[in-house]
Amino acid sequence: MTKCKNFIQGFLPNIYNQFQQLNFKLRTSDFRLPTSNKIMELLTILYLIGSITFILGLKMLSNPKTARKGNLIAAAGMTIAILGTIFLYQDDEGKKLGNYAWIFGGILIGTIIGAFAAKKVKMTAMPQMVSIFNGMGGACAALISLVEFNHLSHNTTGEVNLGTLSIILLGLIIGSVSFAGSMIAWGKLNGNIKKDFAFPGQQFVNIAILLAILGLSVYLVMTLSPENAYLFYVIFGLSTLYGLLFVFPIGGADMPVVISLLNSFTGVAAACGGFLYDNKVMLTGGILVGAAGTLLTILMCNAMNRSLLNVLIGSFGGGAKSSGGTSPSGGTVKEITLSDTAVLMTYASKVMIVPGYGLAVAQAQHACHELEKLLESKGVDVFYAIHPVAGRMPGHMNVLLAETDVPYEKLMEMEQANEEFSTADVVLILGANDVVNPAAKEDTSSPIYGMPILEVELAKNVIVNKRSMKPGYAGIENELFYRPKTSMLFGDAKKVLQDLISEIKNL
Q: Phi and psi dihedrals of 391, rounded to 5?
């Protein structure tokens, strides 16, 4: 106890004396920062604000109720970061960016193109827009690497930072793969590329190209000289080729996974740009996009019960194209009339609607919402069952229905919907195919075996609206159409729903 007391008595006065000395220095010293430092500190604060808005916006995007507001908040943060960089950024010598005519000219062109494309695009084409915009992000990251390597190769000091060169190469490779892959994904989704391109031994060729890219990158980093600078452009070409061959063989049903994976690539490439320029907001945004894209990819793979490796080396599709009325098991198709459908749904206690890409193609979301409101006016409970990979990209159906102001509480995710199907009198399937295919549970030879599906057969009655008996995006037969509980209602989804509404009103 005595030792402790002596220690405190000796320690506290010492601390007090040091504090007094520090206080004297603070009062007598001039701590005024140069104007350039103050400006850069202000820019850092703006970057911090931008980063916070990105995080808040991403958080709000996880809920349909707050998604639009979250998008606007993140956009506002990006605007702050862009304007702050243009007007406040200074290099070590206090020199500003300049070239304002070029900068604002580029912003104006990009704004016009982006706004026009966003207003013109239909909800059915939203996956294509996501792919092409994502590709532009990858291209931007690759261009940054090309520009910075050009500066590095003309460095007169002869000093090359290996870390900087490594980041440049990483941004180039990932950005090029993302750009090329996204363009192929866009072509597949848009119908410009109608077949999956593959040749014997393609996976081995892809691996060989990837190893060549990595090997040349390591060699270039270790031995950079004017004589071998051309290898950088060889790496650029090989990365672009790899991005093409990487996506070409992937089947249509795997596109949601590919889109989210390429999105994560673009985020990582953007983060590399943030490292190069010591730009905090660019680094934060890139990391957030990369992390979110990676998590989404994992969720999509889980939703399809497929590993990412399966997606990359195998593909859905290529199955039998059937248009007949008899299944392999010997079942037959049973059709239902509009009037019978109207009676069945009107006198039901609970109806569950399963939206799919057919609904989006027909632009029938507004008619579907009108049907929902009409049935509810007659005392019928109506809900929507949403599969994670329904449509052509993650969240496609959620966005489509949100456009028509469908109440968010009516949207059921797959797990919740599967618990409710047994209580439903009628399930109306609108253009969905693979996400309700029983082969995923019953046929071990099916390419979708093991994929979690919406278990619509638990309901008392199943009505499927399709244009024809053609298989879905995965290209395989759907045994559900031949089951005793299932009735087919053929026709364009929008027209069928409009006619169904008229029939119900006349009851």
A: 90, -150
What is the rounded CA–CA span in Å between residue 259 and residue 257?
A: 6
Under a CB-based contact definition with an 8 Å cutoff, are residues 432 and 396 in contact?
no
- Taking a C-beta distance cutoff of 8 angstroms, is the pair 474, 253 a contact? yes
Known catalytic residue at 434: yes
Rounded to whole angstroms, the Cα distance separating 359 from 465 reads 9
> Beta strands of 323-379 (E only): which ranges?
350-355
Note the pLDDT tens digit of each residue in 330-386: 568 899 999 999 999 999 999 999 998 888 888 888 999 999 999 999 999 999 999
Q: For strand 411-413 and strand 461-466, is the pairing parallel, antiparallel, or unpaired?
A: unpaired
CATH class name, domain 338-505: alpha beta
Q: Which is the catalytic residue, given 434, 443, 492, 499?
A: 434
SS3 content of the chain, % helix, strand, coil (to 5): 65, 5, 30
- Of 269, 291, 294, 271, which Cα lies nearest the Cα of 283? 271
Q: Which residues pair with 96 in a beta bridge?
A: 90
233 contacts 207 by C-beta, under 8 angstroms: no
> What gap in Å lies between CA 60 and CA 69, rounded to an integer?
7
To which residue do tokens 């996204």 refer?
182
Kind and range of the H or E element at 488?
strand 486-490
Task: List all residues 6 or more positions away from 95 whose beta carbon is below 8 Å from its beta carbon.
Answer: none
Residues in the chain, pLDDT under 70: 1-36, 123-124, 155-160, 196, 251-253, 303-306, 310-331, 471-475
Q: Name 384's Cβ contacts closer than 8 Å, sequence gap at least 6.
A: 352, 353, 354, 355, 397, 401, 406, 410, 411, 412
SS3 486: strand
* For the chain, percent of residues with pLDDT exceeding 90: 39
Amino acid at 431: G
- Three-state secondary-structure class, residue 109: helix
What pLDDT does residue 228 have?
85
Question: What are the backbone angles phi and psi of residue 121, rounded to the nearest 5°?
Answer: -65, 140
Q: How far apart are CA 396 and CA 432, in angstroms?
A: 12
| 462 phi, psi to nearest 5 deg | -125, 125
